[in-house]
Write a structure and sequence with these properties.
Low-confidence stretches: none
Number of helices: 3
Order of helices and strands: HHH
Largest sheet: none
Strand content: under 5%
Radius of gyration: 19 Å
Number of strands: 0
Distance between the termini: 67 Å
Number of domains: 1
């Protein structure tokens, strides 16, 4: 016995699986950023500039923010798929931009202390 699914149901299932993979990517990236934040906080780059803890905390905060963005995006897409509504991505893009600004600032600060 085979189950017949129409194209729309298959497309929704594929989108749900892609959404889960995307959440895992956000999570993996957030954990990598968290590890970098801990490394920057523990690393003593120079005696003159002791901003490493603050920069490490800022990168760790970015990691937490990135995880929250991934969760918000995942829940938003699942809710929209359930109600068959189009996806609003402005929040995801704006929060991703904020994360990139924070990381750019941290990288510039770290490179200026070396």
């Amino acid at each position: 016995m085979t189950i017949q699914l129409d194209d729309t149901a298959l497309n929704i299932e594929r989108t749900i699986m892609a959404n889960e993979r995307t959440l895992l990517s956000w999570t993996r990236t957030a954990f990598a950023l968290l590890a970098i934040g801990i490394l920057v906080a523990k690393l003593d780059l120079s005696v003159k500039h002791s901003h490493n803890r603050m920069l490490g905390a800022l990168v760790s905060f970015s990691a937490i923010l990135m995880m929250l963005v991934g969760i918000l995006r995942y829940n938003s897409l699942n809710r929209n798929l359930k109600h068959k509504v189009s996806v609003d991505v402005i929040i995801t893009y704006s929060l991703s931009g904020i994360i990139m600004l924070i990381l750019t600032y941290v990288l510039l600060r770290v490179s200026s202390t070396v």
